[in-house]
């Protein structure tokens, strides 16, 4: 059995760790509320522009934007991975990267080329270790997503799609369900079709374009990809703070349990030492 001094030092060490995890839990809870508010504010715009863009894919117009054209053969795939820059958020990053890795193996088995854009330090490190072809990256986003930081790396994928270097583009991120649940998903970003947003050819919308169809469609589809990208990052950030708060709370609770067990062991060791001393005193007195 360890000595009383060793146990006391261990208790102090665990108590210090618990103070840190408790502080991180409170910080994550504060950031989580702000991230959730930001995400919920962005959701209506993202859902609406998805539906408008989906209806646009069935609109009757002579102009067809490259984002609306489905390729007959898919020879190359683009993938945007959205992860956090920091760890200590449970299995959040592991789950979405495991999902992405599974799809990457499928594409590799089918002989499809893969181009990757990594948003977040964890995803970047994973893709580098996996040997993926990384065409662009962005790290250090902080606690608030900024579209000007995101659109540059993502544009590398959009340009590759327009040039025909990739035939389909996916985005992988964690969708926020609630504080206790975050769902890793991979969604098709390009090409856009009405089926992706619940629209169908039986409910086609016909539009009048001012000043012309090309200007309106080009601008609208640019806003569409920007909105979906921003929404994915906002969802992932809300998921990150929720997962970190839960993980730190679990760590604090576990530290509390460990401290209780160590105190019990310390008391037993102390009681054994006292008993031993009493026994030695009684034996000495009897010998005298």
Automatic annotation (TrEMBL):
* CDD domains named among the record's database cross-references: F1-ATPase_gamma
| A GO cellular component annotation in the UniProt record | plasma membrane
Localization per Swiss-Prot or TrEMBL: Cell membrane; Membrane
Sorted alphabetically, which keywords does the UniProt record give?
A: ATP synthesis, Cell membrane, CF(1), Hydrogen ion transport, Hydrolase, Ion transport, Membrane, Transport
SUPFAM superfamilies in UniProt:
ATP synthase (F1-ATPase), gamma subunit
Q: What molecular function terms (GO) are annotated for this protein?
A: ATP binding; hydrolase activity; proton-transporting ATP synthase activity, rotational mechanism
Lineage, top-rank taxon, reads Bacteria
Question: What processes in GO biological process is this protein linked to?
Answer: proton motive force-driven plasma membrane ATP synthesis
Entry annotated with the keyword Cell membrane: yes
How this chain sits in the membrane, per its record, is: Peripheral membrane protein
Major place of residence: membrane
Q: What does this protein do?
A: Produces ATP from ADP in the presence of a proton gradient across the membrane. The gamma chain is believed to be important in regulating ATPase activity and the flow of protons through the CF(0) complex.
Q: How does it assemble?
A: F-type ATPases have 2 components, CF(1) - the catalytic core - and CF(0) - the membrane proton channel. CF(1) has five subunits: alpha(3), beta(3), gamma(1), delta(1), epsilon(1). CF(0) has three main subunits: a, b and c.
Similarity comment: Belongs to the ATPase gamma chain family.
- Name used for this protein in its record: ATP synthase gamma chain
What species was this sequence derived from? Answer: Candidatus Propionivibrio aalborgensis
The gene designation is: atpG
């Amino acid at each position: 059995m360890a000595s009383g001094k060793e146990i006391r030092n261990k208790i102090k060490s665990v108590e210090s760790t618990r103070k840190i995890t408790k502080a991180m839990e409170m910080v994550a809870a504060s950031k989580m509320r702000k991230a959730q508010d930001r995400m919920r504010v962005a959701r209506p715009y993202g859902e609406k522009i998805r539906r408008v863009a989906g209806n646009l894919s069935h609109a009757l117009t002579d102009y067809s934007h490259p984002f609306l054209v489905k390729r007959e053969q898919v020879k190359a795939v683009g993938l945007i991975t959205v992860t956090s820059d920091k760890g200590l958020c449970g299995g959040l990053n592991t789950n979405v990267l495991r999902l992405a890795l599974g799809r990457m193996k499928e594409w590799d088995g089918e002989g499809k080329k893969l181009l990757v854009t990594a948003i977040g330090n964890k995803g970047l490190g994973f893709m580098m270790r996996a040997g993926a072809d990384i065409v662009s990256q962005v790290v250090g986003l902080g606690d608030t997503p900024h579209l000007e930081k995101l659109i540059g790396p993502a544009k590398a994928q959009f340009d590759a799609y327009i040039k025909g270097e990739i035939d389909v583009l996916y985005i992988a991120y964690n969708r926020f369900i609630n504080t206790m649940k975050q769902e890793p998903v991979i969604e098709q970003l390009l090409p856009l079709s009405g089926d992706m947003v619940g629209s169908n050819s039986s409910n086609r919308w016909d539009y009048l374009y001012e000043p012309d169809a090309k200007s309106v469609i080009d601008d609208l589809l640019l806003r569409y990809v920007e909105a979906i990208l921003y929404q994915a990052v906002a969802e992932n950030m809300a998921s990150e703070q929720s997962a970190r708060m839960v993980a730190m709370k679990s760590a604090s609770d576990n530290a509390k349990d460990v401290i209780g067990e160590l105190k019990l062991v310390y008391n037993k060791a102390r009681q054994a030492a006292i008993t031993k001393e009493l026994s030695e005193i009684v034996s000495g007195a009897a010998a005298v």
